[in-house]
Amino acid sequence: MAQQPGQGQPEQPKKDYFWFYIAGLIIVVIIGVLLLKGREMASVPYEAYEETKKEVEQQLKGEK
């Protein structure tokens, strides 16, 4: 007996990937923030700041 349209196995519902997209977007944003923060921290010249601070302290000690 041939199956008529609308009878037989019910159609499987389509999978909802909404939360996978949201989770992926959150992960991408977190990684982006960490990369940008790392790049910003690398550009700060801490060594130059420390050297300048030492020179200023030496000059202040010499003036006293």
Compact summary:
The protein has 64 residues and is mostly helical. It has helices spanning 18-43, 46-63. It is rod-shaped.
Question: Which structural class best describes the helix and strand composition?
Answer: mainly alpha
What number is the mean pLDDT?
Answer: 81
What helical percentage do the residues reach? Answer: 55-70%
The string of secondary-structure elements, in order, is HH
Low-confidence stretches: none
**What share of the residues does DSSP label as strand, in percent?**
under 5%
Q: Biggest sheet, in brief?
A: none
Number of strands: 0
Radius of gyration based on Cα positions: 32 Å
Cα end-to-end separation:
108 Å
Helix run count: 2
Inertia-based shape: rod-shaped
Which SSEs are present, and which pair or pack?
Blueprint: H1 18-43, H2 46-63
Structure description:
The protein has helices at residues 18-43, 46-63. The protein is mainly alpha-helical. The protein has a domain at 27-63. It starts with 17 loop residues before the first helix and ends with a helix. The relative contact order is 0.05.
